[in-house]
Amino acid sequence: MSPTTPLRPSTFSRLLRASACALALGALALPAAANIPLTERQVLLGLFNGTDGQNWTNKTGWGAPIPGDECSWFGVTCVGDNVTEISLWGNGLAGTLPTNLKDLTELKSFNVSENALSGAIPPLPAGLQNFSADDNLLTGAIPDLPAGLQFFAANNNQLTSAIPDLPAGLQSFAAHNNRLSGA
Fold first, then answer.
1. SS3 annotation, the chain
2. Which secondary structure element, helix H or strand E, spans residue 110, and what is its range?
3. Side-chain half-sphere of 32: how many Cα atoms within 13 Å?
4. pLDDT digits (tens, 9 = 90+) for 94-110
5. Is residue 37 within 8 Å of 70, Cβ to Cβ?
6. What are the backbone dihedrals phi and psi of residue 166, each rounded to the nearest 5 degrees, phi first?
7. What's the rounded Cα separation, in Å, for the pair 94 and 21?
8. pTM greater than 0.70
């Protein structure tokens, strides 16, 4: 076929179908969005399993058996190959938070407000900047707060004990309607 010969509809249709098939096959071979560390995957699975994940309002993607797509799970945000945000506000979580939450080493924001979480707030990741767990049934003491924390909200829970030392850069600490003591 010369450059000036027009394509006949049947030739054009075959080329179009072949191109579409090639694109579809290429899409299947794309790598996963991120390969978060196994320790981070374990924290996410622990969060799902420990908070009745099968009954969450939105559990899209959660608990997938094959690693590699965690960054596309509902409420999870990643930068590079690390989880940086979890936002499961009002999503029907019931149960306890995982004790290994601190293993999310790049987590900056964690919001589990307006659920039915119980038990203690676990140790928080060192780089956490925002923590919100308002309107749950959390008990026990507030853990030591990381140095870089800017916002802490745990209003309307059943937390007890003294208020911990607050980090120098903390901009907002809200924990009313608990059973806390101290200044």
1. CCCCCCCCHHHHHHHHHHHHHHHHHHHHCCCCCCCCCHHHHHHHHHHHHHCCHHHCCCCCCCCCCCCCCHHHCCCEEEECCEEEEEECCCCCCEECCCCCHHHCCCCCEEECCCCEEEECCCCCCCCCCEEECCCCEEEECCCCCCCCCCEEECCCCEEEEECCCCCCCCCEEECCCCEEECC
2. strand 109-111
3. 15
4. 999 999 999 999 999 99
5. no
6. -95, 135
7. 45
8. yes
